[in-house]
Amino acid sequence: MEKITSKNNSLIKDTKKLFTSSRYRYEKGMFVLEGARLCFDVLNSVYETEDLFFTEDMQEKYGDKIEALSRACKSSYIITPEISQKLSETKSPQGIFACVKMNSEKSVASGNKIIVLDNVQDPSNVGAIIRSAEALGIDTVITYRGCDVYNPKAIRASMGGVLRMNICNVNDLCAELKTLKSKGFMIYSTVPDRKAKHITELDFSTPTACVIGNEANGVEDEVKAVSDLLITIPMLGRAESLNASVAASITMWEMLR
């Protein structure tokens, strides 16, 4: 097992770039996990790990798990605490990182309950929505534009849900929604409008896809036009809207209760 001691090592530089550049992630077809929980979660997912980096302290603490993960990797490297600090996207790095291959096959929407993210930009929102979707039993998360789900902040906020959920990224959301409609889905777009249909008054017993819009601008007009109905979460206070991840969680709860 090789030990890397230089922060200028080309492999370390490439790994850091996977953290910081979405374009580079997709060019390489790779993303990075940081932290013990996320790195060990990949063993129980459909993803394959290419490279594993860990400090000697982590090896002492999680010997058996690191050995199992190392066997599943193409290459494993011991790194110094200084390199761990350079790679890390957190203030207090644990000292373990895994470069993971993106799935080569494009995911497709499946199941009867789907949440759709229309240009949701904040990685914390995207990750939190994926986490809630997994917890509440949503079948598929469709993403369109917005934040890359492999953004490190989104992965952390999802608590590993990115590794387990069926996430389908589409280039033409309206076309995707029309396809779902042809399969019998009801398409609902959420809006902060008291005149829209209250979500509590809907029957979600049929196949349903609910759209959550961009944090600043909401659901795009073209998407609203494709939708069967505009729906809203009734609010009694003076706030005009909800945070995107909060709105998504309430929507998904109503979809499945």
Describe the 3D structure:
Helices cover 39% and strands 23% of the residues. The protein is α/β, with parallel strands linked by helices. The protein is elongated, with a radius of gyration of 20 Å. The model has no long low-confidence stretch (mean pLDDT 96). It starts with a strand and ends with a helix.
Strand content: 15-25%
Overall spatial form: elongated
β-strand number: 12
Average pLDDT, all residues: 96
Summary keywords:
single chain, about 260 residues, five-stranded mixed β-sheet, alpha/beta, 12 strands, elongated, seven-stranded parallel β-sheet
Describe the SSE topology:
Layout: E1 2-4, H1 10-20, H2 22-28, E2 30-34, H3 36-41, E3 48-54, H4 56-61, H5 63-72, E4 75-79, H6 81-87, E5 96-101, E6 113-118, H7 123-136, E7 140-144, H8 152-157, H9 161-164, E8 166-170, H10 173-182, E9 186-190, E10 197-198, E11 208-212, H11 221-226, E12 229-232, H12 244-256
Parallel strand pairs: 1-4, 3-4, 6-7, 6-11, 7-8, 9-11, 9-12, 10-12
Antiparallel strand pairs: 2-5, 3-5
Helix pairs in contact: 1-2, 7-12
